[in-house]
Design brief:
- The chain is an alpha+beta fold and about 350 residues long.
- It has 2 domains: about 250 residues, Tetratricopeptide repeat domain (Serine Threonine Protein Phosphatase 5, Tetratricopeptide repeat, Alpha Horseshoe); about 80 residues, Serine Threonine Protein Phosphatase 5, Tetratricopeptide repeat (Alpha Horseshoe), CATH 1.25.40.10.
- Helices cover about 50% and strands about 15% of the residues.
- The protein has a 5-stranded mixed beta sheet with strand order 1-9-3-6-2, with no helix packed on it. A 4-stranded antiparallel beta sheet has the order 5-4-7-8, with no helix packed on it.
- Helix 3 packs antiparallel against helix 4 and helix 4 packs antiparallel against helix 5.
Length: about 350
């Protein structure tokens, strides 16, 4: 009876809380006070106590197996340089509040990368940690730096393309509203700009304006009904809106063309789990982790719930603990911790008997 009750609570807790798509380089709080275990850490000497740390992976989601140079650009006190450890981890310590830029531009086989990070420390609060997940794109691939196929941009007028590229830069920096303005400008220059409509849907989705996201993606799909790009984004939107059956259909179709999408497999797995199709859900959630690594945190949460439902508690606890390690300040973190504690108390009770 206890197993059944725990499983039921696990599913009600975990399976009905979906997150909106976030940028690849999203900021979050990492483990162990802001510095990944074993990370190469550099004291910047800037007179503060805050930390910017992160992990670098390749475009396939694989961890680096060598050291890379990472530069932290300040706007008033010059640059600071460090290198990663052999698993791609790095950290800059001693930061004062202000704006910084993480730069990787000395690796010949990878496209240059920049990420703006604002360090803020409200008065009276302890030092803050800011974590950056970085995915580097290999040079020479048929992708542009904005992650879309050259063929889909071939007929775009230069002014529309410039606005689109600016929008992507603003979005990566977290300025979604300014990105939306640039995308609208791109569309006004080129009304058949499918990728701009798709990106507009992404930005509205991040802001939680789901009706506007749906409208933009409907226009993208009208322009390119067979394209995996808007189909995938619309499938994610359907999942966020709670239309799980429709999401499953759309994501399955999109992934036939774009099987390397970690986000696609993540949301397909989540939707299947909520519909009770646990075996299929496990397949896609596991695939999402293989492709996206630590960036698909929610996959561990849903896998934990699935394993609890099956009575595979050790596997479930392991997934939940991984989830908490990656997202220690998630909204449901304390509920997940309670589930782990309940499971351990139950095991101790059985052993005592």
């Amino acid at each position: 009876m206890l197993k059944k009750n725990l499983a039921g609570r696990g599913l009600s807790l975990v399976l009905f809380s979906l997150l909106v798509v976030v940028p690849v380089a999203a900021q979050s709080v990492p483990p162990q006070g802001g510095i990944p275990p074993g990370a190469a850490s550099t004291e910047t000497g800037l007179g503060g106590q805050n930390v910017i740390s992160g992990m670098i992976v390749s475009s396939t989601g694989q961890r680096m197996e060598r050291r890379l140079s990472v530069r932290l650009r300040t706007f008033t006190k010059g640059d600071r340089i460090t290198s990663t450890d052999e698993r791609g981890n790095f950290a800059f310590q001693g930061l004062t509040p202000g704006d910084y830029v993480v730069v990787i531009d000395k690796e010949p086989e990878f496209e240059p990368f920049t990420q703006n990070v604002t360090v803020f420390q409200p008065r009276g609060t302890p030092p803050q940690s800011f974590y950056v997940n970085i995915r580097l794109s290999l040079k020479g691939r048929p992708e542009t730096r904005t992650g879309v196929l050259n063929a889909e941009l071939a007929n775009v007028p230069p002014r529309a393309r410039a606005s689109f590229d600016k929008a992507r830069e603003l979005a990566q920096a977290g300025n979604n509203k300014a990105a939306i303005d640039q995308l609208k400008q791109a569309i006004s220059e080129y009304p058949e700009f499918m990728l701009a409509f798709n990106e507009l849907g992404v930005q509205y989705l991040k802001l939680g304006e789901l009706d506007k996201a749906d409208e933009a993606l409907a226009k993208a799909l009208k322009l390119a009904p067979d394209s995996a790009t808007p189909m995938l984004t619309h499938g994610v939107l359907l999942a966020v809106m709670g239309k799980y059956n429709l999401a499953v259909t759309e994501l399955q179709t999109a992934l036939k063309q774009k099987d390397q999408s970690a986000i696609g497999h993540l949301y397909l797995g989540q939707s299947l789990a909520i519909l009770g199709r646990f075996a299929d859900a496990e397949t896609h959630l596991t695939r999402a982790i293989a492709l996206g690594g630590d960036e698909v945190t929610d996959a561990h949460r849903f896998l934990g719930a699935i394993y609890f439902q099956r009575g595979e508690r050790e596997k479930g606890v392991a997934e939940f603990e991984t989830y908490l390690r990656l997202a220690p300040k998630a909204k449901d973190a304390e509920q997940v911790r309670n589930m782990i504690r309940q499971n351990k108390r139950s095991q101790n009770h059985v052993l005592k008997r």
